[in-house]
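User: quick one, fold this
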Amino acid sequence: MKLIAVKEMEPVSRDTADVTIRVTSIAGLAEVSEAAMGLKAGKAWEVELHPTKRKRSLSANAYAWVLMDKLANKLGCSKIDVYREQVRVYGTFQPLTMRKNALSRFQEVWGMNGIGWIVQPLDEGKESVEVLAYPGTSTYTTAEMARFIDGLVSECREQGIETMEPERLKSLIEGWGK
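Assistant:
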């Protein structure tokens, strides 16, 4: 069950406070009723609170795909190929070292996350291999998406492809974190 909580806190002493939590549920009524009954019955509950993240702008993502489609048409390849290449060139990555015999399974599992989830093997030792593991753009922060789109814009301009005016582009990218 997922809950959205807003807390109010009133200090009682130096180290303690009475906390009132107002809960708005995005779960079904049955789950909320079960939780409420559990509290009344004295069950112990573990609760974690995390700040909510703002939804991302679909416009920035849509614009990135428009640019990738234009690049693909110009270069004579698929937009998926362009996307994967742009993720490798402008995306974020995590360097990892693993046993050689684990590499193919890791590539398979990592790639199940989406088309932009790429594993690029680098140096191989006798028993281990170093890789760069790239997550897809759906995980990008606003700054990471800005870098990705800036890279796409540069690639498009190099190919003579028309792009959005800088002010409009800045507005789209700023909306990515919203």
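User: anything notable?
Assistant: The CA atoms of residues 124 and 141 lie 31 Å apart.
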